[in-house]
Amino acid sequence: MNLDLSVPERDLLRKILDSYLSELRLDIAATKRETAPLHVEENLIKELQRKLAQPT
């Protein structure tokens, strides 16, 4: 699936992912439960960020 984004949409999505990743990292640090699923989610976000950083 390809997702064509305008520059403003791409910038907004980057900001949203950055914010969510920060919150997720706080949750991982604060949790006493199994964090493997949270780390999987963290890696998916990082991959999305990497893809967004690539020139189109």
Give an overview in words:
The protein has 2 helices and no strands. By secondary structure, it is mainly alpha-helical. α1 packs antiparallel against α2. The longest helix is centred in the N-terminal third of the chain and has 24 residues, at about 5-30. The chain is elongated and about 40 Å long.
List the defining traits of the structure above.
elongated, mainly alpha, 56 residues
Outline: elongated
Rg is: 13 Å
Cα separation of the termini: 15 Å
Oligomer: single chain
Q: Quick one: how many beta strands?
A: 0
Work out the helix count: 2
Strand-residue proportion: under 5%
**In terms of structural class, how would the helical and strand content be classed?**
mainly alpha
Question: Runs with pLDDT <50, length 5+?
Answer: none
Q: Can you give the mean pLDDT?
A: 92
Q: Mind describing the biggest β-sheet? A: none
Order of helices and strands: HH
Summarize the amount of helix as a percent range.
over 70%
Quick description:
With 56 residues, the protein is mostly helical. The chain has two helices and no strands.
In terms of topology, how is this protein built?
Blueprint: H1 7-30, H2 36-53
